[in-house]
Amino acid sequence: xxxxxxxxxxxxxxxxxxxxxxxxxxxxxxxxxxxxxxxxxxxxxxxxxxxxxxxxxxxxxxxxxxxxxxxxxxxxxxxxxxxxxxxxxxxxxxxxxxxxxxxxxxxxxxxxxxxxxxxxxxxxxxxxxxxxxxxxxxxxxxxxxxxxxxxxxxxxxxxxxxxxxxxxxxxxxxxxxxxxxxxxxxxxxxxxxxxxxxxxxxxxxxxxxxxxxxxxxxxxxxxxxxxxxxxxxxxxxxxxxxxxxxxxxxxxxxxxxxxxxxxxxxxxxxxxxxxxxxxxxxxxxxxxxxxxxxxxxxxxxxxxxxxxxxxxxxxxxxxxxxxxxxxxxxxxxxxxxxxxxxxxxxxxxxxxxxx
Length: 355
Hints:
The chain is α+β, with helices and mostly antiparallel strands. Helix content is 43%, strand content 10%.
């Protein structure tokens, strides 16, 4: 193994949390319960495989000079649970007849653009890693995931969940797990796992805002808007503005995310509640970004990126460590001004200390 490579924490993240799928799997309607149960079984198997096969460190690619343009390839699983599937679209191909293929291609590009143009990062690993994706994965597969090498998209069940390539922030969220994998390598458990999830929500939202040209005040601060079916009582998977309000549905249940440490959820499920307690740092970012105004990727996003890639964040970081490092990063980049003040106020509002 390369002496410079790090051992990678074997993260297998899905955009739809296990607690949602578990609630669906207990539904009386078999057309809802059976696809959810299959999705849960699949995801559990994939998590086990990731733990078994992740045995070496991950170092950025070093093959040739990095490009200012992405290198994207889309594959079609043709509704089988295989990866990568049949190659159906390359970087310089004309738009495909398949809208799902085109959305995956565009979402990979939007993610590449935000990281390159806002932060000077060349692709997921910082060294021009090709971006691959598999679409039409499985039958009625209600999820999308980053498997350590590629994006994989299900088509949804077309009832509770629609095509997972529809929201660009879902694509950005999952690919950001790759960025975290190559940088801070946050362990996917408890608060460090919640930070891992929050990083993906933060940059997923920023990717959507950047691609739409939205300011912090114009953004909806929702993750997965447009993914829920028309009969679901809800607007998205998560809300950074108001954690706990994204959905309240008879089948999906109620959004369990807390906005502050007062409501922090202690649980042994979902790797210690990584998809639940991520609402706390998510809300802190929202508060900072809207307090500073303008384009959220320019100051708030830059601070979060500096901490993620700065080398000081421990793999088992707690919220307080991350908060303290954001304040230090703001001071280092912007001085003792409104950025630092916004951070101190936001972390205080969500009940996370910065000392």
